[in-house]
Inverse folding.
């Protein structure tokens, strides 16, 4: 460590290089964000365009594409399925995830490392890799193609995610509060409802919003397990882009805008309660079992 | 403190019933993650015809199957390197808490939630031959030729960067802000400028985080499916391994072969993760926080 320190004093004599470096980084960042912004704007413009062929702006404006997209893609039923799937996944992930996170945060027991690995693996393996064997099993169990199969498949990454987000939240709560409840004779269940759940409110809210946003955007698992009646919005969007030759591109883009509005609305709600860096904090708190 | 709560329970019951709380989650994971995985592994050794290894020998001798490994790696490795390589210096610049930080992180979350499908549709509109980018470049006479950024290798690579970079950035930012700034301040009193602080303090301490970030970013890029179909040319240069697995399962209905491809995919993925963690082990190991935890 001491050898590189001696080289420090000499490396500060190029201030212009530092400025150029900073400028380059900011330039790249702005280029990235501007292009993404324009990309979204292009989809938005096209969804309102009467006809748009190789000019800066379309010939005329219309909202007809939203009406036709709503009918063509049966968006009302797709949105219903999406809402059902997403809320079922959030509810079930919390139901099994929070108690498990509690045990992992509070207790030491043999096999805990193995259990942590079991909960970390679904986040480290590509969804397609376990999605295909999973779809095979679900087809055997007659669950694939139904909304239950879609919910079960989406729970696989959601439940571990809740566990990994909630564990540090629970670790922050003073165990003496639980001991006090126990001294007064509260059972585990009562202690959970009357002491832990109120204290964990913000954490549970953060975890459920993050699971919600992730589940809306999760494509692969729903794609592999959904049938025609159990498609969520993102899968329906995939099929409409995939068959783009058949549909007017404006109609597809109108659907894309509906999808983006749904995600963005929830994202903005989530950002009111969660710091963006927490979206990925699951790893920060659990670097390695080492 | 866990011993205190354990002692509280122990006189009543010899078995700590709190442990039961983990059972539903563990049972769920065993039933829906481990069991399908083992089932798929067993299924892959039970091909429709031929011996136990027929699927694997079929994969490695068929011309449109085994090259998918390289196709996938040729997309996933550069995408991951670009994402992590760009995210590291930018996150380092933004490590100090400021209004910019909050704004930039908020804006950068948006592409994560857009998802790959919407990014694909947006790119087809924006980067397409008659999109705004092509018009802009031709209007200002920057580039006159036809722009080919969709339906090929570059389209998929760009979409992987768009969806992967914000994720890598947020992850690295949360690692960097987790490093005690006291360490860097101590170095700066000894005359270290930001670049020297980065080289001698942050980089060694970030090594485990970077390895983890590389692995997670690689998982995302490696499982590329929607953008490879929508933005690439799924029959040619962007026929990635997940397309091969999907076709085997849902177009040929050969679940045995599909499971074999999924297993190969998981195996390649684990090889890369193991290699990254191996390199990481050659570097510094130790605490990331300052004097007092």
């Amino acid at each position: 460590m001491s050898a590189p320190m001696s080289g420090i004093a000499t490396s500060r004599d190029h201030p212009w290089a530092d400025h150029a470096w900073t400028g380059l980084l900011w330039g790249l960042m702005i280029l990235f964000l501007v292009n993404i912004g324009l990309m979204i704007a292009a989809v938005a413009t096209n969804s309102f365009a009467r006809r748009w062929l190789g000019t800066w702006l379309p010939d005329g404006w219309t909202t007809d594409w939203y009406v036709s997209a709503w009918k063509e893609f049966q968006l009302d039923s797709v949105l219903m399925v999406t809402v059902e799937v997403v809320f079922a996944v959030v509810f079930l992930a919390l139901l099994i995830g929070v108690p498990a996170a509690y045990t992992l945060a509070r207790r030491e027991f043999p096999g805990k490392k193995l259990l942590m690995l079991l909960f970390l693996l679904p986040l480290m393996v590509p969804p397609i890799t376990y999605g295909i064997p999973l779809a095979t099993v679900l087809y055997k169990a007659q669950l694939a193609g139904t909304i239950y199969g879609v919910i079960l498949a989406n729970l696989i990454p959601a439940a571990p995610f809740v566990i990994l987000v909630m564990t540090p939240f629970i670790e922050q709560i003073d165990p003496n509060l639980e001991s006090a409840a126990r001294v007064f004779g509260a059972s585990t269940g009562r202690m959970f409802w009357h002491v832990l759940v109120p204290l964990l409110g913000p954490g549970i809210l953060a975890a459920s919003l993050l699971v919600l946003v992730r589940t809306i955007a999760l494509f692969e698992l729903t794609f592999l397990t959904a049938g025609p009646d159990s498609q969520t919005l993102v899968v329906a969007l995939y099929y409409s882009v995939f068959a783009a030759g058949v549909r007017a591109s404006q109609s597809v883009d109108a659907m894309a805008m509906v999808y983006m509005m749904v995600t963005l609305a929830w994202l903005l709600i989530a950002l009111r309660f969660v710091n963006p860096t927490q979206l990925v904090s699951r790893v920060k708190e659990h670097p390695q079992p080492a | 403190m866990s011993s205190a709560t354990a002692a509280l329970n122990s006189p009543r019951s010899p078995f700590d019933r709190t442990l039961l709380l983990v059972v539903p989650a563990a049972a769920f994971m065993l039933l829906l993650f481990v069991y399908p995985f083992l089932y798929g592994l067993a299924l892959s050794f039970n091909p429709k015809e031929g011996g136990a290894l027929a699927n694997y020998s079929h994969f490695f001798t068929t011309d449109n199957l085994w090259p998918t490994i390289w196709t996938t790696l040729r997309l996933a490795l550069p995408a991951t390197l670009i994402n992590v390589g760009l995210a590291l210096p930018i996150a380092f610049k933004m490590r100090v808490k400021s209004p910019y930080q909050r704004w930039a992180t908020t804006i950068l979350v948006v592409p994560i939630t857009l998802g790959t499908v919407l990014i694909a549709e947006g790119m087809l509109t924006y980067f397409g031959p008659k999109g705004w980018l092509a018009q802009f470049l031709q209007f200002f006479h920057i580039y006159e030729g036809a722009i080919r950024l969709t339906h090929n290798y570059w389209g998929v690579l760009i979409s992987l960067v768009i969806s992967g970079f914000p994720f890598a950035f947020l992850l690295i930012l949360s690692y960097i802000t987790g490093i005690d700034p006291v360490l860097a301040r101590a170095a700066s009193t000894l005359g270290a400028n930001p670049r020297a602080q980065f080289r001698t303090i942050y980089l060694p301490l970030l090594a485990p985080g970077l390895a983890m970030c590389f692995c997670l970013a690689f998982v995302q890029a490696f499982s590329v499916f929607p953008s490879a179909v929508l933005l690439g040319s799924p029959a040619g240069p962007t026929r990635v391994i997940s397309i091969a697995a999907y076709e085997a399962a849902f177009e040929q209905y050969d679940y045995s072969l599909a499971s074999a491809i999924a297993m190969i995919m998981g195996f390649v993925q684990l090889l890369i993760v193991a290699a990254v963690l191996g390199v990481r082990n050659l570097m510094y190991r130790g605490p990331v926080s300052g004097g007092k935890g």
Summary: The two ends of chain A are 24 Å apart (CA to CA).
